[in-house]
Amino acid sequence: MIRLQNIFKFYSNRFVKTYVLQDIDLEIQRGEFVTVMGPSGAGKSTLLYIIGMLDEPSDGEYYFRDEPVHTMKEKQRTELHRGEIGFVFQSYHLIDELTVYENIETPLLYQKVKGSERKGRVAEMLDRFQIVAKKDLFPNQLSGGQQQLVAIARAIIGQPGLILADEPTGNLNSEQGMEIMELLSKLNKEGTTIIQVTHSEEKAAYAHRIINLLDGRIVE
Known about the structure:
Elements: E1 2-12, E2 17-28, E3 33-37, H1 44-51, E4 59-64, E5 67-68, H2 74-84, E6 85-89, H3 100-110, H4 115-128, H5 144-156, E7 162-166, H6 174-189, E8 193-197, H7 201-204, E9 209-214, E10 217-219
């Protein structure tokens, strides 16, 4: 599903290049649950953002379902990202001015899904995550755990093949965190490919395999 070859990411001024990722070779199969671990500054989030097409590598090749992402124009990448990838962030990234219902509906608007189908799919998500009673509330009226449930509902409503989760339980208490991990595990069992970044060995254990990053490189 995903193939990265010789991926580098660096920032340069006139005198020096600062490398965030170096010589990353990585393959992820469809249906895998992969955890990326490493200390702060190792390049974990940058790797996730490149896979999610929210950032571009400085060098190297990226294939998504055998499509060469590294040669695509921005519009093509945006369309591929919207159709194939759901993102879950540590800080939820919900839109404060929109209700729970409207936040969940947003990806379907981008995908130009018809109104009647949108209504049905949002209702299904509200029911699945047991947040029907919260549908008219705004993010600041929800607990952290509830906001993350809304964020996951929004990430999966477009039926993406891949979910990227950047420290998805980082701002939650242990009970809420376990609930989110069980949910991600269930989605994976249903066929969704999941890549998560975490500092927690307990959360990492949900994955099929762990990729360790150190100073921008994959280490054994």
